[in-house]
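Narrative of activities, Objective 1.

The group set out to show that a structural description can be obtained from nothing but a protein's sequence at a throughput compatible with the screening campaign. Below is one input-output pair from the validation batch, recorded exactly as produced.
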Amino acid sequence: MSDTKKLVCEVGKRQLIKHGEVTCGDSVEVVYTPEETFVVLSDGLGSGVKANILSNLTVKIISKMVSQHVPLQDIVETIIGTLPVCSVRGLAYSTFTLLRIKPNGLVDIIDFDGLPPITVSKGIVEVVERTSEDVLGKKINKAQIQLKEDEYLLITSDGVTEAGLGLTLSFGLQTSGLVKALKEHVKDHKSAQDLVNQVIDICMSYYINEPGDDTTAVAIHMRQPRECALLTGLPVDKKDDAGMVHAFYTTAGRKIICGGTTAQVFARETHKEVHTVNSSLTDEVPPISKIDGIDLVTEGIITMDYCVRLLEENRTEHIPKSGASMLLEQLLWADKITIFCGTQVNEAYEQIKAGMRLRDTLVEKLTRELQKRHKEVIVYYY
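Output recorded for this entry:
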């Protein structure tokens, strides 16, 4: 694969808390930099609060060091040199697996007492071969692989390989059992989250819905970047209507329009028709509309405000379907969002409070929330 072909590293994760505990003893941290993505998984010894503190400390230290561009070898030596060992069991108080992923799909894998990673590609499931070396008297496993577009890499805590231990399986699922289960139930995953959901569902079935250990699955998926364009509001100068609509419509990716008047202006400039969907999906958010060639058409201020609140409250799953949830889904799907925002003050809101610029404020809030989720957001004001 050419180094110039930049792919997006999509990360999915899902965890189960050991039955009877209140917190997970595994921790996961993802660090994004312009050049690389880092994923850290740590499994604290035992379970519960103590294990959570130990694993969380491990991922925080590693994440801080990678964000400061400390070489991987130095990070490993620092962690190995500082991790305490249980005097009774002779085991380190936490394990870790560290992934460094470049935009061309090259992945460096380093783990201390971690499980072998697994690759999934077009129905082929394979265990990654690792080499071992001694670092400060500890065995460290390393590997480097090249992921191509639409290939996945899976890492897990031992709660996955021990699924069903003493219950449905004498020795637990083990890595070989996980590979076999994935092969038998292989499907075309649409995302990294799809893959980890499948892995955790497999584990839950063997645990008979009562996990015997903290269980974590993390997957990365290399794919093409996804884009969308959002049009909302009217330009201050009506002469700019055509230019704003043209810029929006010719931008790459899915198309979203927020605003009833905005939709009417778009329809006028493109000689299309707006079709209102009669039934509203929820009482809190106005109904959506349809325009040929546009992926989503919603009402403006109320819908955008509700979407922003969902993001601020981190409510991104299991939301009642509405124009706001559909807008949220489209925005979270994209890696790059281009917003075309008209700054003409809405007369209806002007009557409420003079100079009120709700749309501008919402776009600013929306931009911040999306950037927190590592989205690239570009805003053009008219």
